[in-house]
């Protein structure tokens, strides 16, 4: 039976949503099209009616995953308007985020995979990372121009690296220490930047 354009678009979005989670859990090459489509309740035969290639789906699922992550950052920030950076640090460097692969940060889960893919996939990551950096730059404050951007890059690198390392080890205590050390470092660095920017009395 022929599906309507509306239903076809709903099916396409469902596949993108499922792929954004399954790719984070298994990696881009760790799951095949048959299992991806089954996860969305469809057959593999429907795939090529919706996407040009698996690379096309990888790019779109990456974009969706990064948009979702950006939404979680924004929601955390809104929940603590007095200190949005601390809210995001607490969220990102939590044990819960470390344990949650399929809903976690795609930069950590798929960054190394993205580096081996084409320009469209890397472009999806670049756009999402720029959004992260823009948020961080707005919260860091106390610095100008290039210093804000540099500080935001350092903060994002510290946080993503800490989650990556925390996930990579068996030792639970070491995992927690990576997360805590990164949180302490980020908050210390940003507090120092803000203090330097305050006018002297």
Descriptive terms for the model:
disordered C terminus, 201 residues, Tetracycline Repressor, domain 2, mainly alpha
Structure, briefly:
Residues 32-51 bind DNA. The chain has helices at residues 5-26, 33-39, 47-50, 54-79, 84-92, 95-99, 106-114, 119-140, 146-168, 172-197.
Describe the biggest sheet? none
Looking at the structure, the CATH topology is Tetracycline Repressor, domain 2
Q: Label the structural class.
A: mainly alpha
- Share of residues in helices: over 70%
Low-confidence residue ranges: 195-201
Figure out the total of helices.
Answer: 10
**Rounded radius of gyration (Å):** 19 Å
Q: Which class in CATH terms?
A: Mainly Alpha
C-alpha geometry: globular
What percentage of the residues does DSSP assign to strands (E)? under 5%
Distance between the terminal alpha carbons, to the nearest Å?
A: 75 Å
**Gross CATH architecture:** Orthogonal Bundle
Strand-and-helix sequence, N→C? HHHHHHHHHH
Mean pLDDT: 90
The structural domain count equals: 1
The CATH superfamily bears the name: Tetracycline Repressor, domain 2
Work out the number of β strands: 0
Domain HTH tetR-type: 9-69
Organism: Ancylobacter dichloromethanicus
Keywords: DNA-binding, Transcription, Transcription regulation
Protein name: TetR family transcriptional regulator
